């Protein structure tokens, strides 16, 4: 039996993935994927995340407004978000700050981010954070705002290595995607060598951030735009990449990541098992 695996971040509801197919779920169970955090990005996909959570106990749903989509929010978005959180034990995410996107409005992003962060703190819910080219502002927001006691996840962490200690002190865990196995991602690999093992999480970010082709165990057809589609069962290959990067056994890595994942998401997972859906 392979070790239990935990995906700290994916988007199983994405239309590029056959999220309801028996073949996909057979693959996930074959790889012993115990739990996965499925992140919504906007009001438009929160219902699909909720439906997956109601169908599959392996899904830990997460609802949030991604900074790329905050301009699309309705006047009732906060009420809608709270209804989703009330419907099923869940986390908050994917939320964050992004200066990389064209025409960004960082002030607007920050307003939405802080509202969601405060909600996570009030309910003590895990929060999954996206950040690109806004690390100083993110650190400022985290230092000056309430944070959930259970911790927060820096999804696909690509920030400066010198910020790791300060972020760790604020409750951050750092999630490693298989995409960083690409040769051109040497800086990100070096950064993760500076992450303490007790602060490490593993993610697929499926259907995005695919591994290098030679590491992919579960290929999927490319999307209409020609981009590769990442199967969530490739999580096992991401664990293997992480073990090689850190120079430890897969068994040791899986045991520590399980402890880390449950430190953040364990209360939500426990309530999931106790709550009728």
Summarize this structure as a short list of keywords or feature phrases.
about 280 residues; single chain; globular; TIM Barrel; 8 strands; alpha/beta
Explain the overall architecture:
This protein is of the alpha/beta class and 277 residues long. The protein has a single domain, classed as Alpha-Beta Barrel (TIM Barrel), CATH 3.20.20.140. Helix content is 39%, strand content 16%. It has helices at 22-30, 46-55, 77-87, 106-123, 135-143, 164-169, 186-192, 235-246, 250-274; strands at residues 5-10, 33-39, 59-63, 91-98, 127-132, 152-154, 172-177, 200-203. An eight-stranded parallel beta sheet has the order 1-2-3-4-5-6-7-8, sandwiched between helices. α8 (235-246) crosses α9. The protein is globular. The model has no long low-confidence stretch (mean pLDDT 97).
């Amino acid at each position: 039996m392979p070790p239990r695996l935990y995906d700290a971040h994916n988007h199983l509801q994405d239309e590029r993935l056959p999220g309801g197919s028996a073949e996909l779920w057979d693959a996930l169970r074959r790889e012993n994927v115990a739990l996965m955090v499925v992140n919504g990005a906007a009001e438009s996909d929160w219902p699909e995340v909720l439906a997956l959570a109601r169908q599959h106990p392996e899904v830990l749903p997460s609802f949030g407004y991604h900074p790329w989509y905050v301009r699309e929010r309705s006047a009732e978005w906060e009420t809608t978000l709270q209804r989703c959180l009330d419907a099923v034990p869940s986390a908050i995410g994917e939320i964050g700050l992004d200066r990389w996107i064209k025409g960004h409005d960082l002030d607007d992003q920050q307003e939405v981010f802080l509202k969601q962060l405060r909600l996570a703190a009030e309910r003590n819910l895990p929060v999954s954070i996206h950040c690109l080219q806004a690390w100083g502002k993110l650190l400022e927001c985290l230092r000056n705002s309430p944070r959930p006691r259970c911790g927060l996840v820096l999804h696909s962490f690509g920030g400066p290595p010198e910020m790791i200690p300060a972020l760790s002190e604020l409750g951050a865990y750092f999630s490693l995607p298989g995409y960083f196995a690409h040769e051109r991602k040497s800086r990100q690999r070096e950064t993760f060598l500076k992450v303490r093992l007790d602060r490490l999480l593993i993610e697929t970010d499926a259907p995005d951030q695919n591994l290098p082709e030679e590491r992919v165990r579960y290929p999927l057809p490319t999307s209409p735009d020609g981009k590769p589609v990442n199967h969530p069962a490739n999580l096992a290959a991401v664990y293997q990449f992480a073990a090689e990067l850190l120079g430890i056994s897969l068994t040791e890595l899986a045991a520590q990541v399980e402890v880390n994942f449950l430190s953040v998401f364990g209360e939500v997972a426990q309530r999931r098992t106790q709550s009728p859906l």
